[in-house]
Design brief:
The structure holds three protein chains of three kinds. Chain A is of the alpha/beta class. Chain A has helices spanning 47-54, 82-88, 110-121, 126-139, 145-149, 158-170, 188-204, 216-222, 240-245, 250-258, 298-302, and strands at residues 5-16, 19-31, 36-40, 63-72, 75-76, 93-96, 176-180, 208-213, 225-230, 233-239, 308-311, 314-316. Chain A has an eight-stranded mixed sheet, sandwiched between helices. A four-stranded antiparallel sheet of chain A has the order 2-1-4-5, covered by helices on one side. The radius of gyration of chain A is 21 Å and the shape is globular. In chain B, the strands form two sheets. In chain B, strands 6-7-8-3-9-10-12-11 form an eight-stranded mixed sheet, sandwiched between helices. A four-stranded antiparallel sheet of chain B has the order 2-1-4-5, covered by helices on one side. Mean pLDDT of chain B is 87; it is low at 320-338. Chain B is of the alpha/beta class. Chain B has helices at 49-56, 79-86, 106-116, 125-135, 152-164, 182-199, 210-216, 234-239, 244-252, 258-263, 294-298, 321-325, and strands at residues 7-18, 21-33, 38-42, 64-69, 72-73, 89-92, 170-174, 202-207, 219-224, 227-233, 303-307, 310-313. In chain B, helix 3 packs across helix 4 (125-135), helix 3 (106-116) packs parallel to helix 5 (152-164) and helix 5 runs parallel beside helix 6. In chain C, helix 4 packs antiparallel against helix 5 (131-146), helix 7 packs antiparallel against helix 9 and helix 8 (194-202) packs across helix 9 (206-243). The radius of gyration of chain C is 26 Å and the shape is flat. Classes of the chains: A alpha/beta, B alpha/beta, C mainly alpha. At the A-B interface, helix 7, helix 8, helix 9 and helix 10 of A face helix 5, helix 6, helix 7, helix 8 and helix 9 of B.
Chain lengths: 327, 338, 303
């Protein structure tokens, strides 16, 4: 059986008045049913662009989808017309955004916002849709769901709004749920609540989750597979254990070493990665991480690294793992 | 051991009137910061930690309470004296994109404090600016560049250089790394640590990232809804948290290690972070506290020392051996150790 | 290079880093670039520059003056000698249009500049001081704004007589209020920015904060407002001159020329066409330029 979602060599760029920004430079990965994968990266690595590209939400112009395929159960989403993709968005693929304060329509009641999708895609009657909306609110742990459904977003706190957004996304039982930094704007105790909710949902529903974040701790808690992004490419992918215990790419290693941990020795010094993320207008030739890499070799400055296998299901784009004779 | 503390905050309160109700941003806050140390101030949004930082620097006027800097009561200072005092205490702000004037180049930004306080003759200012850039690890040839030409981490360094221009003794770091990428956060924090040693600085490090606070702080103060709930050395707070809120905070932080995460006892705090408008009576944490008793809803717990230098305000820790031994403590006044 | 050499450690890694590399454009450089991409706005800018050149050098190109009458040459269709034709009294239209350009631009820019100075000071002080000062200043502005504008203008003209100075005074009496409101709104927003707090923490006094930090950052909306005030001023002057309240003969304002050309519209249409066309194009250009500037200065499009 084919994978649920397959992305093949996706390349997306943006035309700005200062030049062309190459946001995605050949991203390939796959997500299976009931799998949760994390896409980890810092600002400017292209993870949000990737999330939006999967649902064809990139505004063109100035965005340009140069090449690549996004196959949902074998069907290429990038070739669909606007009408066709509208039918897919929400129903097959759902999305949760980062800022709960601005993701909800402030002039529409909560219940109505959940009902919107239900009435459009499933053509439910108003009463049925309302009942389902209340059901969803209960599922995401909102007390007094019937009363809350009649309230407006400003009457809810940040954590509750994020739950509502999750309810909206899950109401149509999509096959894939994309969560774009859903807990970054939340307090740490509320973040723990939302993560617990997402784990509960994973168990109950059949949905695959693509979790986009820069927080390495959150990933360790929630996901099976991890992909590390840097400057528009995936530089390493593997299981959670492989990435955290045997990181292969120098960037992954650097990220893990620069994170303070509650259980680290206080005398230990954090080792930051020197330099700054590259300017996407002028990506250096060769490996994009080379200027910041303490293990850089001559080949790294000249040629973009190929993908090498570290172990089963653990791949890395780094010349350090190359078999020298085969170049 | 009788050196005067550098900063003493006594019973600080800041209340706002909002649509008829009282917004208690900070209530009855007491803190002592010794020279040369880093005190971390943690809490979630709405707990009032930024307000405390701004009130110390007189960017915001307190409703009640006193702040002493080097023994001097700041509220008694007149304008000229306050201006002089500003040389000794500075702030590093959270947002690297909003804390630098976009129309001023780096030289203007760094020269401004030198101009205001007439610290350096006009001819020598450029040289001093170059020195400051080198001090924070930036290229001194970039004086003519504008903030938007720098990355977030570099802008934050410029903000630090600006604070250092007046050669302060005390710096309030108000969430200086929250807006930065993970790999850059460590750069800036290490820079702050190195500068502290080099220039004998004292920091109040306000943040919500407890792991980072542990890395940089000597002592830690935990705030909830405008009140201090626990204070102690970093070792005490992190290995033996007393207050249920502190324990919940520490349990909520994910650790980047899948093995540990699977084995950890996950405790999720219920309920929402309440609004500081008309906070609950009694202990501010009692609506969410898993160990709340009837007393917690009625009476605000007093600030008590539970073991050497480790303080908390919680009814679960009344009458600890140490406080029984001393004179009967006044309610809501922190015992200041000398 | 041998394969095994490729895997040796890289020297001079720092040179690859972008940090010493490309210089992104300064703020105004970026604004100019964005404006350039906006075809309509850039074309308008070009037109206005040409118009200014016309106003300054135009009369030198033509051999006629604007006041010389020549009754044998009256009402001539545009010819090689007289490019825009002549009017009722034989005066050369082209030269008169150029002088008219001078008057319109002069009036427009002067009025807008005075509006700028009064408006920025008024709005700046109101916003910065806040509280009662703000309420007082803005209520005064509101009251002045409520009075019917044209009524004041006409009353002033009747009292002070006609001419350029009364027109400019009439234009600036209430023109500054819009600028004051915009400046006040912007400064209220900026007051909460962290770099203002930082300046206070550094010990900066109120004057320094207002003039060195706040006002330079309000320049964007100020320039846009100015650019959009000029066409209003130009039109008002033309309108007043059209009514006969503006500059008097033999001075040539586009408005007086339009007034002269109106009765002869049927037979000598160029006498109305040229002044009207110039008024319209000038106003349209300023408006398009102002809109383009507003977009170019928009912080959201800055990324």
């Amino acid at each position: 059986m084919s994978m649920l979602l397959e992305v093949k060599d996706l390349r997306v760029s943006f035309k700005t008045y200062m030049g062309v920004v190459r946001a995605l430079r050949g991203v390939s990965f796959s997500v299976d049913r009931r799998q949760s994968i994390a896409i980890v990266g810092e600002s400017g690595c292209g993870k949000s662009v990737l999330a939006q590209s999967l649902m064809k939400l990139i505004v063109t112009p100035p965005g340009v989808i140069e090449s690549g395929q996004v196959l949902l159960e074998g069907d290429d989403l990038l070739c669909k017309s606007n009408k066709e993709i509208e039918r897919i968005r929400g129903k097959e693929i759902g999305m949760i955004f980062q800022d709960p304060m601005t993701s909800l329509n402030p002039t529409m009641r909560i219940g109505k916002q959940i009902m919107e999708g239900l009435r459009k895609h499933l053509r439910m009657s108003r009463d049925k849709a309302f009942a389902r909306a209340v059901e969803m609110l209960e599922l995401v742990g909102i007390s007094n769901p019937t009363r809350r459904a009649l309230q407006y977003p400003h009457e809810l706190s940040g954590g509750m709004r994020q739950r509502v957004i999750i309810a909206i996304a899950l109401a149509l039982e999509p096959k894939v749920l994309i969560a774009d930094e859903p807990t970054t704007a939340l307090d740490v105790t509320i973040q723990a609540q939302i993560l617990e909710l997402m784990k509960k949902i994973q168990k109950r529903m059949d949905t695959s989750i693509i979790f986009i974040t820069h927080d390495l701790g959150v990933v360790a808690n929630l996901c099976d597979q991890v992909m590390v992004m840097y400057a528009g490419k995936i530089v390493e992918k593997g299981s959670v254990r492989q990435i955290y215990h045997h990181p292969a790419h120098p960037y992954t290693r650097g990220l893990l070493k620069s994170c303070p941990r509650l259980d680290m020795d206080t005398k230990e010094r954090l080792l930051p990665i020197e330099g700054s993320p590259p300017n996407l207008l002028h990506i250096p030739s060769g490996c994009a991480f080379c200027p910041r890499c303490s293990e850089a070799m001559r080949i790294c400055a000249n040629r973009e690294p190929k993908t090498f296998q570290v172990s089963l299901s653990h791949k890395v784009d780094c010349w350090k793992h190359a078999n020298q004779e085969t170049i | 051991m009788s050196t005067k503390p550098l900063v003493e905050i006594k019973n600080l309160s800041k209340h706002y009137r909002v649509e008829g109700a009282q917004l208690r941003a900070v209530s009855g806050f007491n803190l002592t910061i010794e020279r040369g140390e880093t005190v971390g101030l943690v809490g979630e949004s709405g707990c009032g930690k930024s307000t405390v930082g701004r009130t110390i620097l007189r960017l915001c006027m307190p409703t009640a309470g006193e702040i002493f800097f080097n023994g001097v009561d700041l509220s008694l200072l007149r304008r000229q004296e306050l201006k002089k005092m500003r040389q000794k205490m500075q702030m590093v702000f959270q947002d690297p994109y909003a804390s630098l004037n976009p129309r001023m180049n780096v030289q203007d930004i760094l020269s401004e404090p030198l101009e205001i306080h007439q610290l350096v003759a006009r001819r020598a200012r450029v040289h001093r600016c170059r020195q400051l850039l080198q001090l924070v690890g930036l290229n001194p040839n970039h004086l003519s560049r504008f903030p938007h030409e720098f990355s977030g981490g570099q802008r934050q360094r410029i903000g630090i250089a600006r604070a250092l221009a007046v050669e302060p003794e005390f710096i309030v770091c108000d969430e200086p790394i929250s807006a930065l990428d993970v790999s850059i956060q460590a750069q800036v924090v290490n820079l702050l640590k190195d500068l502290q040693k080099k220039m004998n600085l004292t920091y109040l490090f306000i943040a919500h990232d407890l792991a980072m606070v542990r890395y940089i702080s000597d002592k830690v103060a935990v705030m909830y809804l405008g009140q201090l709930v626990e204070f102690g050395t970093a070792a005490q707070i992190y290995s033996n948290p007393l207050h249920p809120y502190t324990r919940a905070l520490l349990a909520s932080i994910p650790i980047p290690d899948p093995e540990i995460e699977k084995k950890r006892a996950h405790f999720v705090l219920k309920g929402e972070v309440p609004s500081p408008i008309d906070p609950p009576k009694g202990c501010p944490f009692h609506p969410r506290c898993p160990q709340a008793t009837k007393l917690c809803a009625i009476k605000r717990p007093s600030w008590q020392e539970v073991s050497g230098g480790h303080f908390t305000a919680c009814h679960l820790h009344p009458n600890s051996p140490i406080s029984l031994g001393k004179k009967k403590p006044q309610p809501k006044v922190k015992l200041i150790l000398t | 290079m041998k394969n095994s050499d490729l895997f040796l450690p890289l020297e001079n890694r720092e040179a690859l880093s972008d940090e010493n590399g490309c210089h992104s454009p300064s703020f105004w450089g970026g604004v100019y670039r964005r404006l350039y991409c906006n075809r309509a706005a850039f074309a308008s800018l070009v037109i206005l520059v040409l118009l200014a050149m016309l106003a300054i050098t135009g009369p030198l190109l033509s051999s006629h003056t604007y006041f010389e009458t020549n009754l044998t040459q009256k009402n001539l269709v545009p010819t090689r000698d007289s490019w825009f034709g002549t009017d009722d009294l034989g005066r050369d239209m082209f030269t008169r249009i150029c002088y008219g350009a001078r008057i319109s631009l002069f009036v427009g820019i002067t009025a807008a500049s005075i509006d700028l100075i009064i408006g920025v000071l008024w709005g700046g002080i109101a916003a910065f001081a806040g509280g009662r000062v703000d309420t007082l200043l803005m209520r005064i502005a509101d009251i002045l704004y409520a009075i019917p504008y044209l009524l004041i203008v006409i009353m002033l003209m009747v009292v002070m007589g006609t001419g350029l100075v009364p027109i400019i005074i009439a234009l600036t009496i209430t023109g500054w209020i819009n600028m004051a409101r915009i400046v006040r709104g912007q400064i209220f927003q900026l007051k909460e920015q962290e770099y203002i707090l930082a300046a206070t923490a550094l010990g900066a006094g109120r004057r320094r904060i207002l003039f060195k930090h706040l006002i330079p950052n309000v320049m964007g909306p100020i320039i846009v407002t100015m650019t959009l005030t000029i066409p209003t001023a130009i039109f008002t002057e033309a309108f007043l001159s059209f009514l006969g309240l503006g500059v008097q003969a033999p001075m040539a304002s586009w408005g007086t020329m339009a007034n002269d050309g109106l009765p002869a519209m049927r037979y000598y249409p160029w006498r109305l066409f040229f002044p009207a066309a110039f008024i319209s194009i000038t106003m349209l250009s300023f408006n398009l330029l102002g809109d383009g500037l507003r977009d170019a200065l928009d912080p959201k499009s800055r990324k």
